[in-house]
Records
---
Amino acid sequence: MSATEISAALQRAQSVLLRRPSAGLQHDAPATARWSQGTRVVTRHPNGAQVLTDMPTELGGSGDQVSPGWLVRAGFASCTATLVAMIAAERGVALESVDVVTSSESDTRGLLGMVDADGAPVSSGPGNVRTVVRVCARDASAEEVRSIVDEAHRRSPVGCALQHATPVALHVEVDILKAA
């Protein structure tokens, strides 16, 4: 889609949502993950798309696929780049390129359920998340471009999930097979 088409689509969506705010509430497409073998997992989208993950060899995996943690960083980087493109289209700023690199640090001890020297559980979540956004735009000021990136960062659904405590409801269903 061109920037003009993106802008028109966003304007149509905003027009509908101004009239009917409740139309903005939706159920997001579920991600369905199925263990394959070892530490390999196949995650599917309802549209048929799928992603294969595995752990690095140091943690019992093959190391030949991306890890689930990498998908979090990829989702954040991709969401940020998408929002930059959408907001630039809204504002009539012509983009040449958008590159987003998201990195973080994790402590493997948390993944392994280990505790710190003081006995406190080590977090398995990412820390020190850092995102670098490089934008090349035509006929725009640096301030305009920075404003677009700031707005993208503020509106990113994945960014919001990472930056704010999002409650997660866990429901467990168990099937037990009896020996014959």
---
Amino acid sequence: MDTKYKHIRPADIYVSLFPEQSAKQPSDGAPQQERMPNEWGNLPSGNDFIDLFAGLIRKHGHHTVSFYARKMGVPIRMMPQTIFALSGIHALKWIHEYLILEACELVEKTDLQFKEISERLNFSPVTFSRFFQQMRKCQPYELRNGYKRNGR
């Protein structure tokens, strides 16, 4: 019997760094069950492995998949397979999707300098700019300027 499980994506468990954002309804319009953030600051996914992985990303920021495997005590060769089985996406992409959620929120909702944001997410400023461009197809300042210009 081949059982299908719902894949756990970063957006499914990411909790805003800002309290007013956490109270929003999910984008699919479905009523949100009352779930409180776990000790890592994310919504519990129902899978301890993913919860730990996401928590470590929130804590340590940008690192390699092998870094997180070591932190979790998982054989490095098993980490990519496990994340893919649980999420349907590759482990590095999972890390990047999680980090871009946090990066966009910091760019849009704070006045932190981009250097401070890059340090918080464990990027060099140049690498952060490239990462942001690759993931969002714009530079951080473009998102911030567009966000402020639209009166949000």
---
Amino acid sequence: MNSSVSRKTYSLLVFMVFFSSFGNILLSKGMKEIGQIRDYSASALAALFLRTFTNGTIWIGIVSLLVFFVCNLLLLSWADYSFVQPASAIGYALVALLGYLVLGEFVGPVRWLGVAFISAGVVLVGGTEPRTTQDR
């Protein structure tokens, strides 16, 4: 693979991971702002729906996930799925870190160990060629 395609692949992978993680963190933050669902009546669910879709944090999260989706589609157009999905798993580490820093969640030692294993797997996959198949 030439270096410009490799640079393009890794750059888009970084954007994809960032916008996926950031979008999901914002959705979580937005739903925590709205609060727990306790009443499942039609009127309460309608009010919840209205609060959800008028929440700016949720909309920024949705836009971030749309950017992630476009990056994912572009990346899959020239890199193998068996490369893209495992390499993008580094997002799990970013989500754990953002959950701790942004949402104030406790991330225990066992979770951090799991994140370390995932990160080691990403390093292994990231060292392989992003595309092993030929164009048809």
